[in-house]
Amino acid sequence: MEQSQYQHHSPNPSLFQLFTSFLRLGATAFGGPAMVAYIRKMVVEKNHWLDESSARDGVALCQTIPGATAMQMSAYVGLRAKGVAGAAASFIGFGLPAFLFMMILSALYARTHTLPAVISMFNGLQAIIIAVIANATLSFGKNSIKNWRNVINALIAASLFGLKVSPILVIIVAALLGMILYDKQPVPHAVIHTKKAHAPKSLSLILSVTTIGFTAFYFLDRKLFDLAILMFRIDLFAFGGGFASVPLMYHEVVEARSWLDGKTLLDGIALGQVTPGPIVMTATFIGYLLKGPLGALLATISVFLPSFMIVVGTAPYFDRLSASPYFKRVITGILCSFVGLLLTVTIRFALNIPWDFTRILLSGAAFIALLLRVDILWVVLAGTVISLIVL
User: Fold this and answer.
1) Mean pLDDT of all residues in the chain?
2) Distance between CA 213 and CA 209 in Å, rounded?
3) % residues pLDDT > 90 (the chain)
4) 365-374 as b/e, with b when 16 or more CB fall inside 10 Å?
5) Exposure pattern of 247-264 as b/e (b: 16+ CB <10 Å)?
6) For a surface tag, which of 173, 187, 198, 278 has the fewest beta carbons within 10 Å of its beta carbon?
7) 118-158 tens-digit pLDDT
8) Which helix (H) or strand (E) holds 16?
9) What share of residues in the chain are helix, strand, coil (percent, to 5)?
């Protein structure tokens, strides 16, 4: 892959340096989007690969496009430092530890989830994950619901999803509503100022390889093909960060296809919270339970590939894109819809749990801890210990 004109006049890292630096960071990447601050510290203050302005531009881009923000930021840094090859090295390095952890935990889950102690642990963790998703709903709401138009958009999304309309269709409706409701939305100033890169050639190569791979799986194993296409589509519509993928996964995996039940998907989300990396790493768990290690690998690649391609493809043009009033309206509408989608999926997950006093107490305590900004890792680990003792 050719080197782009994204490079900055600062110490030029090698591909190996990018890979190993993000590999070390990825091994401790707990906290989801909070990891963006650590990425900025590593690349701006410690290694001087980017300046502060370039880092801010990257955050603006990654918060606007679909996918897991921290993963996208790793790709953006690599792109600026070493072109498309650098983006791949950083992206893979950052995500690899989470993938390996999730593979191991998924394998253990498949062999031990019927043991009494494991059942007790997940009974408690399911209640805690309800609190985690509810807190994500609240956070989305604080950031997205600013006026009555936002409320209308969120309520329409919640109502449609409550009627079991596909969340992808709900998102499309929300985008159209955004065009109508936010006609007086102020247009932001352009934020990214980069020369036109030569990424299209590399992007075309990636798309070609992806198409060939999907075609091969279509003829060799339709279940793997369906899994890959589903995860690819989920990432394409996951605006607003990793948690935005939860309603999409729930609808497609539990309701539309019945590949897993709601409780099992909750278990996968719980495992994702004790591993580094974004919540969309639940795709690894789903793939493993459906088709073993190959399914886990394919699901993981598929759920992150769109994010990578979007970063590579949009970074050179994001200043012009973000200056479009239509783009701003569409994004606003979509982000509001995810408040409604997350609210509805929180309720649906909650209905899968046989609530008793202990679970209510666990869920309430976890929710309060998250409101007090206790790190989610400690909330989940504490919940695991308590579940083993009292359930």
Assistant:
1) 86
2) 6
3) 39
4) bbbebbeeee
5) bbbbbbbbeeeebbebeb
6) 187
7) 888 888 888 998 998 898 888 888 878 888 888 988 899 89
8) helix 15-26
9) 80, 0, 20
